[in-house]
Amino acid sequence: MRIEPLSREELERLLGEEWLMPVRLKVETRRVESSEGAVPVALVNTGLVSDEPDILVPAGVARALGLWPQPDGSLSVILGTAGGEGEGYVVP
Q: For the chain, how are helix, strand and coil distributed in percent, rounded to 5?
């Protein structure tokens, strides 16, 4: 079974144009155990859902938070994305 994505026109017809507008917010991100922090601009309405709260950050933000390179105690994972599988890690 193959699932084809809807075109922009089909999405606008089904959901209305307002559903296609990305929302970007500045989000203060800080590690609990340190004073390291960052205020990246986050894309917040991607339509993706998960069972637990998740935050995915680019390498520059991870570096500012002291999370790059991969810290000791983190767990390597395979992430399923719209573009296929990718490697990542979880910091408990």
A: 20, 25, 55
Distance in angstroms (rounded) separating the CA atoms of residues 20 and 30 = 30
Token code pair at residue 71? 């810290």
Asked whether the bond before 69 is cis by omega within 30 degrees of 0, the reply is yes
Nearest to 40 by CA among 61, 54, 22, 21: 61
Taking the alpha carbons at both ends of the chain, their separation in whole angstroms is 36
Cβ-based neighbours of 8, under 8 Å, separated by 6 or more: 20
CA distance 16 to 29: 32
pLDDT digits (tens, 9 = 90+) for 40-65: 887 776 666 677 777 778 888 888 88
Measure Cα distances from 15 to 8, 24, 43 in Å.
Answer: 10, 20, 19
